[in-house]
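Limitations

Structures in this collection are predictions, not experimental determinations, and the ligand pose is part of the prediction. Treat each record accordingly. The example that follows, with SN-glycerol-3-phosphate as the small molecule, is included so readers can see exactly what is and is not provided: the inputs are given verbatim, and the output is the predicted complex.
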Amino acid sequence: MKLFIDTANIEHIRIAAKWGCISGATTNPSLIAKEGRKLEDVVKEISDLIDGPISAEVAEASANEMVEQAKELAKIHRNIVIKLPMTIDGIEACAELTKLGIKTNVTLVFSVHQALMACEAGATYISPFMGRVDDAGDSGAELIEKIMTMINNYGYETQVIAASIRNLSHVEQAALAGADIATIPFAVLEKMVKHPLTDAGLKIFKDAAKK
Ligand code: G3P
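Predicted complex:
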């Protein structure tokens, strides 16, 4: 499973990019607003740090308007992927951008039906939101499993980005369900390296080396 970083914080991206295991980045309007910066500036800077897909989200509008926004964003860098909302207009824009050869990421996916629509519209990626499904009392892990089954049944090329990842369990569940990618906040990425037994083992080895 590929690991993307889910943030608009350039310092965090700079640090994580050096680890050599992050192959893409995703942003959304909330993450951009948190940094208080312009979307275009942020994604340009990310493209200097990560050589992989970088999702930039359009503002929700009519299909035509989102296609126009997408064309402008796509000019920023060859790695830009246009994040579109899971709406009728979003799907229409997805189909149009696919025809134009512009990569898309249909976001805010919460059901197999939505995923199916996006796959049929030619989405490059879809982003089911694990954490928000759990928040609503359902299972984010099950959603990923069902979407993977549906995609494998029909051989769609659309890749699944497990999103709204809040903890290590989400990462594990996404990987076990066969998600292509998980987009992960910086704090969770840092935790993925840690295990108390690794720390304990290190201490034992350090003490032994001193002797
Ligand atoms: O990848 C989407 C993500 O940024 C949303 O996460 O925690 O706001 O549900 P969250």
